[in-house]
Amino acid sequence: FEEDIAGNFEGVGMEIGIKEKQLQVVTPIKDSPAERAGVKSGDYILKIDDKSTVDMSVDAAVKLIRGKGGTTVKILFFTKGGTRPVERSIVRDVINIPTLDTSTKPGGIFVIRLY
Prior knowledge:
By secondary structure, the protein is mostly beta strands. It has three helices and ten strands, in the order H-E-E-E-H-E-E-H-E-E-E-E-E. The chain has helices at residues 2-5, 33-36, 58-65, and strands at 8-11, 14-19, 22-28, 44-48, 51-52, 72-78, 86-91, 93-96, 100-105, 109-114. It has a four-stranded antiparallel beta sheet with strand order 5-4-6-7, with helices on one face. It is globular and about 45 Å long.
């Protein structure tokens, strides 16, 4: 719990959940190792370090994905619209969870996202 509210943790930087009984990336955190590795929202997670994610809970997956900064985790993803799974080796780092993000949309709309 303390890690979850601290504002930072060591891992790859992606929010995950379960959809259609399969672990799935909800969103990679901006400027995180996961985002830089090409992880996208909607990617399914099939394996974590050669461990199948079939019937794996989100908490169990998080424990496998998080780890000491500078170490590597191998994750097998299946991207929607893809033809075959893709394995990515992602180096863990300190992930700072942003408290807000801003952007500008066409038409002069200013968007503020609170986390």
